[in-house]
């Protein structure tokens, strides 16, 4: 009996020890921490980056209007010239001679007027007493009229000769920067020649011509008609130079072409930019950021919180009820700085997960907190725009 009692006591002790071990199992791991951003509605500018070409406000190709040999060039290549400034002198000896000849012809014609007029007057008196025939009087009167007409013709010839002589001094038609001279002193130039002597361009203000597809313009106008998008005030434009730097002065949209180019399906937009330092050169290509409008009540989601699933659809992870993770399929319109404009799938008040997304699954209980690398969106524009995203995705 004592042996059986001992065995029973040992069995009870073993069971007690096992029970105690079960109560001392390690606790469950804490929920993973994630960084969340609480979304809210705000206004967002709709930016469109378009290729553009810089054009001078005024361009004048200087060409000779008479033929002759260049005697002097009177400007510094690449310098600034003013309208009316003397640029070239052409040898004017032939034109001075032509002017003197025209002056002599005019004087001769004017002298002929007096003799023919006096003769016509005498014949008029004589025909009254039948001293001369009516035909002789008519001939004398016609000669007087021809003399007066010849004076008018010679006066016109004199004016033409004076104009030609003035053309021997070629002046700047506009003010601006003048390019290199394609002809040197001693070169023969001709009226109507194909090559210009030089070119003057006014560049204190320049045009930037950009092309926008007709489809984009239609999309914007339809969105404005449906509401939610307001037209940009003043149509501000920013310019990105060929080296990637931003031009410090904003431009203004002047007008858009009234027709669509049938070859490219694009519409030309023209903007003006001040160019006080001459940094913008005609012919230079640049990229223009056009503020087309403003989307009111937009949801701006940080790009770190938008990803793609295996089918390429844009998705987002949000913290739902009881801190459980929910997956949302979203639709993004375009990028504004480092954020996407979300048009469907997210709403104001949603807690978008932007950090701690690795191996995170829907239904997981998480501990939300402030993100370390991503800041919550503030009111107004969230930076300057990037290239438009695909409307069904386009997220990272």
From TrEMBL:
Q: Matching InterPro entries, A to Z? A: MdtA-like_b-barrel, MdtA-like_BSH, MdtA-like_C, MdtA-like_HH, RND_pump_MFP
Enumerate the GO terms in the molecular function aspect.
transmembrane transporter activity
Task: Name the segments for region: Disordered.
Answer: 368-396
Where's the Multidrug resistance protein MdtA-like alpha-helical hairpin domain?
99-168
Q: Name one GO cellular component term.
A: plasma membrane
Please note every region of biased composition (Low complexity). 376-396
Supply the PROSITE patterns for this chain: PROKAR_LIPOPROTEIN
What Pfam families does this protein's entry cite?
Beta-barrel_RND, BSH_RND, HH_MFP_RND, RND-MFP_C
Q: Which UniProt keywords apply?
A: Signal
Q: Please name the GO terms of the biological process aspect recorded for this protein, alphabetically.
A: response to antibiotic
The residue ranges of the Multidrug resistance protein MdtA-like C-terminal permuted SH3 domain are 297-357
Signal peptide, first to last residue: 1-19
Q: What is its main location?
A: other
Multidrug resistance protein MdtA-like beta-barrel domain location, by residue? 205-292
- According to the entry, every stretch annotated as the Multidrug resistance protein MdtA-like barrel-sandwich hybrid domain falls at 58-201
Q: Where in the cell is it found?
A: Cell envelope
Sorted alphabetically, which NCBIfam families does this protein's record hold?
A: RND_mfp
Family from the record? Belongs to the membrane fusion protein (MFP) (TC 8.A.1) family.
**The protein's name:** Efflux RND transporter periplasmic adaptor subunit
Q: Which organism is it from?
A: Sphingobium limneticum
